[in-house]
Input
Amino acid sequence: MKPLDFEKPLDELYAKIDELRRLSAEGQVDLSDEIASIEKRAEKLRNEVFSNLTPHQILQIARHPNRPDTFGLSMLVFDDFVELHGDRQFRDDPSIVGGIAQLGTHRVMVIGHQKGHDTKEKIYRNFGMPHPEGYRKALRLMHMAEKFNMPIVTFIDTPGAYPGKEAEERGQSEAIARNLREMSGLSVPVITFVIGEGGSGGALGIAVSNRIYMLEYAVYSVISPEGCASILFRDADQANYAAEKLKITAGDISNLGIGDGVLKEPLGGAHNDWPHVSETIRSKINEDLKRYETMSPEEVFQERYDKFRSFGKFEDPVKA
Amino acid sequence: MSIIDWFNQREKIEDRSKKLDIPGDLWVKCYKCSDILYLKDLESSKKVCPSCKYHFRITPEERLQYLFDSNSFEEAEDSIRAVDFLKFRDTEEYKDRLEKARKKTKHADAIIIGVAKIKKRTVNVGIMDFSFMGGSMGSVVGEKITRLIELALENHHPLVMFTSSGGARMQEGIMSLMQMAKTSAALQLLAKKKIPYISVLCDPTMGGTSASFAMLGDINIGEPGALIGFAGPRVIEQTVREKLPKGFQRAEFLLKHGMLDMVVERQSMRDTLAHLVNVLDPHRKPV
Ligand SMILES: [Zn+2]
Output
């Protein structure tokens, strides 16, 4: 797999280690000292690189082609998962997947974006950019969850809702708006994990949640840094700078009071170790479900309402 | 997102309104049909071109004057001010952009809210102002809309909202995105209380504004020719690599696709709104 730009020096060191190991194995010389020393250097470099990532580099990790996805996590996090299809109105949108999963004694409704990994799947999944029917499928499943008293878990990973002709004709705006309103009224808890890219309204459409957790290298943004750069700076090359200004990283989202926690990823990013990430998510869900068991539907509703009601930064001399 | 288009058009748009604002400038060219119009005539036709029915963008004051009982508007929550909490700087600092917009529009932000009367019926009204940073929704717009809905929850009068906005305000980052959810959540409470909400979508209503409170009216009304959509036409053209048909994302297009209940000309908007308020809320006496 192609390494990310900032991973290249690291990759070169690993290549060297492999080369030395091969020579050693061929039995000509003992290179174990050299190997150990380069390994040490690589470890140090890795720590350095990953403790000083810029927002733009983090964005690249968030978009890594091998990033854990909704499907993978549904299989790994839960004990079983039955996928459900369709919005009952137009079609099944493969950009959003959903279904019923079990976690110990709990049943939960799982819903999330699915970008796809290889070219064929990416096209099938429309690169994780839903049409209105994706949001309508999600809403159908959420209402079902409410009916059968199942908590909802959503996984966020989308560049945004699809900006296309048919999407507009079928009411992209209406579909997202309706989800925002309906989700806020649900009597069951909603727990959201931003696992990759949280792209604007396309992400929010399934993320009006009691709890919003960010994976360490996930991002959440009102607009893609590229989009922001080309509009505000009239220069797409300013995406680096826009990524910084927009405050999109997991840490930023928590500092602004929107995220409820940053979930540590394995060194080098979640794409290196899906089971590790799944374990982290699983224990977070278990912890939250325990808390929600003690809460009434009204309290669950109120917690989510109060959370979103509090969002906003402004001066108000009258109420100050 | 949608904002791209109005941003690209910004010069043109400012040009458009400049011609209307300069005192002593007696003649105006219609943006659509290029007819030369006598400004007094245009004003007496509520800024609708007599030749082609093009609906000029208008200020919140003009909207109040054209649609509501005279001097009936009482502004609420006018002291809330935006803050530059991200220290956002693009080609200009956010706080300077705010300062300029306040000077230009004489408003604190991109919306005014309050109560007003329409044919003696009291309604809660919010009117967005596109000339204030493209009507973009940041914390202040989101908070004011939410407080207006809360006011409606207290006084039980219907809510009428006029939208005109390029979408979320990028200078407030993720916080502006969250205003979509905050306003929509408040509308959920309004719906539960069965208080009528009429959304009038004016030119343009895009992005985060369209994908939240604007689309959630019990009745959605479009102004003729208004551009309404999620993604901006330019972004869509770049994505699908084809030219969009004429009239795409215009109010009439949305009516045809089932997203609006009606498209109403400015001339008959007052009558229509008064009637709808009465039929939705028949048992309340005029106050
Ligand atoms: Zn004209």
Summary: The mean pLDDT of chain A is 94. Residues 32-51 of chain A form the longest helix (20 residues).
